[in-house]
What does this fold into?
Amino acid sequence: MENDSAISEFVLLGLSTDPYIQAILFVLFLLIYLLTLMGNFLMLLVIRANSHLRTPMYFFLRQLSFLDLCHSSVTAPKMLENLLSESKTIFVESCFVQAFFVFATGGTEACLLAVMAYDRYVAISSPLLYGQLMSNQLCVGLVWGSWGLGFVDALINILLAVNLDFCEGQTILHFSCEVSSLFPLSCSDTSANFTLLICSSVLHFFGTFMMIVASYAQIVCTILSISSASGRSKAFSTCFSHLTTVILFYSSGFISYLLPTSGSPLEMIFSLQYSVIAPMLNPLIYSLKNKEVKAEMGRMFRKYFLPLM
It folds into this structure.
């Protein structure tokens, strides 16, 4: 065994070793990635173009779209490259960089979803004071805080991981580099790294999840106190998109980080769901259930695209 100074590359095993399946997967995930880019860029454009979509909810939604663009772009391009490549290698330094940004963007999204849950709670419980309570200064601070927490958490884990020694002939049983996937490759003792990852994942992801649960508990209490059925339905409909996004993110991301790295199909499915599939679905989820966004998309289509047909 040799230390990390002798290792310059890792091999990303990927989703399949069958050339025919790889070709099919390349077309499929290229389409998904292009839809992700188009959907999130369109969401950013729609929110920016309409002056009525300048409320805190749409401010956070714009941040989520930008974050989804970043999160998917960390993993998808390299995955697509490896589906067409025979070597499927990645430099050790590039692997650490990718693992850092996967962790950082995932952690930031967890914080942002908690912030968006609090925003929904304020909007439903105090609609008359909503604009005053969710001031622009507070919204900007919450977004910067989300990015800061995500990046600090990722930085602490990566700085400890770069001190690990690695053996030759290392193959990562995954389609991307993640912090947990590096531990089985090390010749060093990874107990401290694993403990830190578990603690930070529990505190960060489970902590934000409990904040979301607390916000929705208050939301449910507020909705139940509304006398009219139409009022309750309208209040709940404003939370449906966010709640769907939370379920998609936490049902896969949190479980993926707690499962031992084995390269199993179940682990791959969870990782694909939160890193590739969810960023594509989020713009669709928010546009289908949002009348303002659908109306603005229709207006832009009639103005810019219909004359070209």
About this structure: Residues 126 and 204 are 28 Å apart (CA to CA). The two ends are 64 Å apart (CA to CA). Residues 1-5 have pLDDT under 50 and may be disordered.
